[in-house]
């Protein structure tokens, strides 16, 4: 009970913190669908070169495109196999082209939709599908590698920004104000919390937006603003109060 009361007193240091704390959990819940959807889409895109290579091999063995996709749907147990199975099942009541287009739409991936459009164009123009799918397999494998490299680099840089602005900055400020503004020496700086906490929360929010913009996911990053802003403010005020209590 005393711990909860102390936590309530920390929240009372800033109206902005009181408003941000109740928003943290709902916003984290709101961020999860976007994260899961992006992870699902990337899994489909990373499987794309292997699927195209399998199509090329099957066509080289004398099978048609529909037969090749049917075989792939039977052998793959991942999300790609599931979507292809649905497309093959749908093709029994509609045309194969319509089912293939539905697979592209259900993937919600621009890369996969582009591949399906290229395949449809190649079929309409009687292009050699074996060579076309083999070339696309190589190109999209390179593209996936480039995307993964960029994602890794940008993720590291964006995470560094969050660590600096949401953890290091409030930690340094809380430590500095607590050590050099010790209440026992008559130099208490606690009155500055009303200014510092909104400043730190705004800095955290801005860093989250910048981090999301770097990754190309600004809208999804907005869900994380209450979490990082609250964490920044609590770290600052918690470290300040802990040092003040320890040195009193």
Describe this structure in words.
This protein is mainly alpha-helical. It has 2 domains: 2-39 and 150-247, no CATH class; 41-147. The protein contains 10 helices and no strands. The chain has helices spanning 2-11, 15-60, 65-75, 79-91, 96-107, 110-124, 129-180, 193-215, 218-221, 225-247. Helix 3 packs across helix 4 and helix 7 (129-180) packs parallel to helix 10. It starts with a helix and ends with a helix.
Low-confidence stretches: 1-5
The tally of beta strands, per DSSP, is: 0
Largest sheet: none
Number of helices: 10
Shape: elongated
In helices, the fraction of residues equals: over 70%
Mind telling me the C-alpha Rg?
27 Å
Count of structural domains: 2
Compute the separation of the termini in Å.
Answer: 23 Å
Order of helices and strands: HHHHHHHHHH
Topology:
Layout: H1 2-11, H2 15-60, H3 65-75, H4 79-91, H5 96-107, H6 110-124, H7 129-180, H8 193-215, H9 218-221, H10 225-247
Helix pairs in contact: 2-3, 2-7, 2-10, 3-4, 4-5, 5-6, 6-7, 7-8, 7-10, 8-10
Note the main attributes of this structure.
disordered N terminus; 248 residues; mainly alpha
Précis, in short:
This protein has 248 residues and is an all-alpha fold. It folds into two domains: 2-39 and 150-247, no CATH class; 41-147.
């Amino acid at each position: 009970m005393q711990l909860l009361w102390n936590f309530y007193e920390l929240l009372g240091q800033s109206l902005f913190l009181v408003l941000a704390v109740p928003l943290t959990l709902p916003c984290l819940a709101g961020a999860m669908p976007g994260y899961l959807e992006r992870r699902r889409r990337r899994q489909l895109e990373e499987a794309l070169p292997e699927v195209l290579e399998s199509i090329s091999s099957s066509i080289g063995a004398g099978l048609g495109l529909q037969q090749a996709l049917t075989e792939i749907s039977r052998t793959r147990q991942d999300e790609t196999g599931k979507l292809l199975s649905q497309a093959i099942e749908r093709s029994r009541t509609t045309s194969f082209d319509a089912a293939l287009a539905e697979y592209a739409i259900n993937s919600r991936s621009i890369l996969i939709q582009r591949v399906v459009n290229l395949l449809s164009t190649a079929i309409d123009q009687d292009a050699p599908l074996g060579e076309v799918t083999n070339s696309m397999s190589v190109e999209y494998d390179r593209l996936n590698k480039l995307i993964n490299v960029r994602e890794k680099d940008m993720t590291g840089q964006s995470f560094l920004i969050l660590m600096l602005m949401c953890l290091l900055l409030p930690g340094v400020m809380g430590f500095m104000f607590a050590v050099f503004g010790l209440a026992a020496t008559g130099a208490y700086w606690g009155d500055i919390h009303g200014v510092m906490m909104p400043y730190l929360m705004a800095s955290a929010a801005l860093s989250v937006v910048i981090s999301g913009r770097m990754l190309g996911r600004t809208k999804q990053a907005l869900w994380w603003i209450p979490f990082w802003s609250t964490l920044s403010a609590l770290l600052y005020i918690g470290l300040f109060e802990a040092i003040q209590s320890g040195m009193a």
